[in-house]
Amino acid sequence: MAKKTDPTIKLKARLEKAEIKLKDLHEKVKDRTSRQTIQVGKSEVVLKKAHHNPNFTSKSILTDSTWSFVEIFLKQDKSKEAEEALFYWEQARNFYEASKSLSIVSSPLTVYYCFLNATKALLKYKKQNFNLKHGVTGKRKDGQFVLQNETLTIKPKGVLSGLCAYLGEPIKNNEPAYTIKDIFYNLSFIHRAFQLTFPSPSYPELFVPIINPRYVYDKFRKVGWFETQLESEHSNNRTYGNLVGFGLDKKYDNTNFYVIRRNKTFKWNCRRNQPTSDSLTDLTRYHNKIRKQLRTIYGPNNLWYIKRTNLSTHIIDRSNLVLIFATMHRLSEMARYEPQALVKHLEKNHSWLLTEFINKSPLQFIDEISSEITGNDFRATGFRE
Q: DSSP readout, 271-316?
């Protein structure tokens, strides 16, 4: 006599087949169109460099030098803060120009004073209080002339601590000492040079390149969020798994490349591209928070990266501006008081990496400071002298 099949088993099998068919049908009818980009008036809202008060509706300004643009910007503002900021900005420019004629051993001194005055210009214009001390100290550990023996510490009072306060990066009472090696690892614009200089599993890739970063919204739920794409070569579960706080947007096909989104959202109440004042405030706050996890590289193209936060060692939770300022201060000390030490560093295997930082950091720093002062984004034209 044939054994009867349990009816619950049959029912379960039928349900599983139905779920598979339903999933296939859902994939076929899935909306392939992109989500709506947030607009204010006729302008789309995309990611901006400035942490605070970015001009979301402005287009990128093409120029190989932001000095004159910022100067005119400050002159048009008749406030006392703008007048004081202009003085420091002009001082910064003078030091910048002077650096061009100096050797790589001497230039860190004038480059640092360029950074110091440019930072004062920002803090004065933004009404951010600061102490006139530098706000950072450095020293060398006993031993060889290697980057891990060069350390620096951010102090509670000074211009650098004022910059930290402006960026929302508070100074701890027991602030740790950072090594220049770890700082270089945490700077996006020399990260490739770092990887080539120190190829080691202890220093894995820290920055994930992204494409088309923008703010999108759901008009029915009245919420918005940050959305971006991963390059094809990085569109895999390994890379995606390294991005804390982000999820895969299942609205898209995600076959050739991944479209990811920040899990957190903000309120966005908007009719005919005219958002409420509360919505604009929420967007600005949201942007400030996500901007801390993103990095950019100055150049003719918009180059954006997500900085990984899922590593337990060598990570420094500080922005480019803070790390560049602090490192150049240490290098300026060497240039001023012990240039022979700087020469010894430039004779080591990390010479190219150090040279890349000294040469590229002025462009990166001034670009980011210019964006913070004006709220605009700048891009190099690509022309060469």
A: ETTEE-HHHHHHHHHHHHHHHTTEEEE-SSS-EEEEEP---SSS--
- Where helices occur in 105-261 by DSSP H, the ranges are 107-125, 159-167, 180-185, 191-197, 237-240
The DSSP secondary-structure symbol of 46 reads B
CA-closest candidate to residue 182, choices 146, 210, 217? 146
Q: Are 234 and 64 in contact (CB under 8 A)?
A: no
If we measure between CA atoms, which residue out of 10, 114, 5 comes closest to residue 66? 114
8 A C-beta contact, residue 242 and residue 257? no
How many whole angstroms separate alpha carbon 60 and alpha carbon 281? Answer: 22
How far is the C-alpha of 180 from the C-alpha of 177, rounded, in Å? 10
**Tens digit of each residue's pLDDT (9 = 90 or more) over 141-158:** 988 999 999 999 999 999
- Using DSSP's 3-state secondary structure scheme, residue 244 falls into coil
Q: Which of 203, 380, 375, 180 has its CA nearest to residue 297?
A: 380
For the segment 22-76, what is each residue's pLDDT rounded down to a tens digit? 665 555 444 457 899 999 988 999 899 999 999 998 999 999 889 999 999 999 9
pTM flag (> 0.85): yes
What ranges do the domains of the chain cover?
Answer: 66-204+312-379, 207-307
Helix (H), strand (E), coil (C) string for 103-124: CCCCHHHHHHHHHHHHHHHHHH
